[in-house]
Amino acid sequence: METAWNDKTTRAKKEAIDRKWHLVDMQGQVLGRASTGIAMILMGKTKPTYTPSVDCGDFVVAVNADKVHLTGNKLEQKIYFHHTAHPGGGRSIGYKKLMSENPQRALQISVKRMLPKTRLASRQILRLKIYKGSSHPHLAQNPQPVTFA
Predict the structure, then answer these.
(1) CATH code of 39's domain
(2) What is the C-alpha to C-alpha distance for residues 144 and 116, in angstroms, rounded to an integer?
């Protein structure tokens, strides 16, 4: 007796998703490595029930965003660029200035650009909570600490 091609494949269902809370301390972490790990958690790739077409990721609380580390000369050389879609609307800001004004935005941009370019990404980035200091209002959710190598 032959089996169907998808008998062994399990797909996550929207109703059965169990979202957990994770706490990431950004102090001393390298921006790119931490952003990759955060993006994986937001997408749900760390779960055995990962399905690309279903939003099955978890919540992430990132604290100490102002103490993130960059390797090499990126602090002086790295530039974030976006375009407003109007003629002459190109905007760029250096990472050094961005970190002094809004360090949360630097981490958010880094993680957002690592998420898939689909409709799911707009919902996944909303589950990322970033804070400048070490305190956060999500103690009731009991976030579990996560470290990235």
Answers:
(1) 3.90.1180.10
(2) 25
Between CA 48 and CA 59 the distance in angstroms is 17
pTM score, whole prediction: 0.90
Phi then psi for 94, rounded to 5 degrees?
A: -70, 150
Which residues, other chains included, contact 51 with Cβ-Cβ below 8 Å and sequence gap of 6+? 11, 12, 44
What is the residue-level pLDDT of the chain in tens, covering all 149 positions?
455 665 677 788 888 899 999 999 999 999 999 999 999 999 999 998 899 999 999 999 999 999 999 999 999 999 999 999 999 999 999 999 999 999 999 999 999 999 999 999 999 999 999 999 999 999 999 999 999 87
**Count of domains observed in the chain:** 1
Query: Which residue segment(s) compose the domain that 135 sits in?
Result: 19-71+104-146
Output the CA–CA distances (angstroms, integers) from residue 11 to 8, 19, 116, 138, in the order listed: 10, 16, 19, 30
Among 132, 97, 105, 101, which residue's Cα sits nearest to residue 26? 132
